[in-house]
Amino acid sequence: MDQHNQPLENALIEIELKQKDTQQQADKTLYVMDQINKTFKPHILAIPQHALVNFPNSDDIRHHVYSFSKVKPFELKLYAGKPKSPISFDQLGVAVLGCNIHDSMVGYIYIHDNNLIYQSDSSGIINLEASIDSIANAWLWHPRNSKGVNQKEIIDVNTLIQNESPVIKLTIMPPETRESFEDVFKSVQ
């Protein structure tokens, strides 16, 4: 929940287990951050470190996708269809995505250390599949965290253990108004 007791959609909980799988295989999944109706789909993509992400453009217009984020600066200049090759995300953290043509397009790639990731639904609910007793550490992340997009909040694991349905609160910033030039122009007509 947010500071106003409202459900917090698209919050991520990252779980580190007490016993990690030391035989864990490298994730060969090709993740996808699509562009549909001038939005990034999904809005938030959680991937393990070193994962590859493809950026298809399913719109019938061109996009110019970029990130200036420290964890992965990149640029896919004006394109339609599918870029030639996927992009590898090798540093932990958050890559904030934008489109140089459509300012209202913002998306996030959350790069984690091969931990379990759970995302809240539109009701702000997360159903953890991990056994509470197996959790070593837990963090909460949301793109509008009042402390900044790169900040994770530590979750007291005892709170999870002691409560059947724990409520975790996070202070967030209001959503930014993002009007593209196209939106501003429409309002003038």
Write up what this structure looks like:
The protein is mainly β and 189 residues long. Helices cover 7% and strands 35% of the residues. It has two helices and 14 strands. The strands form four sheets. A five-stranded mixed β-sheet has the order 5-11-10-7-8, with no helix packed on it. The chain has a four-stranded antiparallel β-sheet with strand order 12-1-13-14. A hairpin with a 2-residue loop joins β3 and β4. The longest helix is centred in the C-terminal third of the chain and has 8 residues.
Keywords:
disordered C terminus, mainly beta, 189 residues
Ordered list of secondary-structure elements with their pairings:
Layout: E1 12-17, E2 30-32, E3 34-36, E4 39-41, E5 44-48, E6 51-54, E7 63-67, E8 74-79, E9 87-89, E10 93-99, E11 106-112, E12 116-119, E13 135-141, E14 153-155, H1 157-162, H2 181-188
Parallel strand pairs: 2-6, 5-11
Antiparallel strand pairs: 1-12, 1-13, 3-4, 6-9, 7-8, 7-10, 10-11, 13-14
